[in-house]
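Listing S7. Sequence submitted for prediction.
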Amino acid sequence: MPDPREATLYRMVLPDHECPFGLRAKQMLESAGFAIDEHILRSRDEVDAFKAEHGIPTTPLIFIDGERIGGSSDLAKHLESSGSSVN
């Protein structure tokens, strides 16, 4: 059996809020059989610094096999175009 493809997921989980798009991205990656290297952004400052560093307006941010994919809607399009299952 081949090794699973690897995905890196940066998503926001604050004490009072878990980003639903980050959770959706994690579920899509799991459904598609990816090994996930998950990075949780746990404070507003951490989220803001991460967004500024990567030039993005929102989280999550997903990389697959080192390639920057984007957010959860970008991930859904990527999985669909590559023939991976999306639930």
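Caption to Listing S7: primary sequence and predicted structure tokens for the chain studied. The two ends are 23 Å apart (CA to CA). Residues 14-64+72-81 form one domain.
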